[in-house]
């Protein structure tokens, strides 16, 4: 049987494995094992190797210290060579400066809102301004440009078929005095999210710049104690899955919250509006009063 550090380093360095697919189980005294994304584990840090008790790939157990399961090689996949999205024609680009009053985002389905909003009510000062969301482009073009932007968004989204997102794993971005704690919507893989972002960024070159790369995330709140809040969130939220079959264009008018102005379906690029009852899923629920 391989040791836990051997499994870790094989997944990390063998190009046939995708580390984003793997979760490690860390033994906790008096509690169930804590699940940690393999990419977030720090060798030689606070957690010794003997506390690593299992590895999962795509939710399936592939190595388990207690039972002797050791089938990592069954998860081997051929490396995927990314194919860059085709560059749009000059007329298919809208080079308009962005504003933080608009965004292109994914909204999780209504049935996932209650536990997310329960956490946000206590920790997210933006709960009355934003619904639960994963931004793909923020900021985006001003709302006055939405008529010109929608055909380009539709063309970009037609290049990516709908996919299933797995929301699991809690992380945080560190600021000067506190940190933003967030839920990872790309636990099943970053590739479809990155494809969406790249297709949109090509058509809106002045929007959504990410100098350190695009990190899809669902913000839960800000706190000076991110580790404590992360533990709380992990206890309240188990892994969730949802179908990503549309993105929405959001805008904020005056002191209003961000509201959905249009919806665009993945795979087809079909455009609809929240007041259109024929559009799949209907309008999202309003933020809590």
From TrEMBL:
It holds the Pfam family 2_5_RNA_ligase2. Residues 280-289 have a biased composition (Pro residues). Residues 1-65 form the MJ1316 RNA cyclic group end recognition domain. Coiled coil: none annotated. It comes from the Bacteria. Residues 267-289 are annotated as: Disordered. This is MJ1316 RNA cyclic group end recognition domain-containing protein. It comes from Streptomyces nojiriensis.
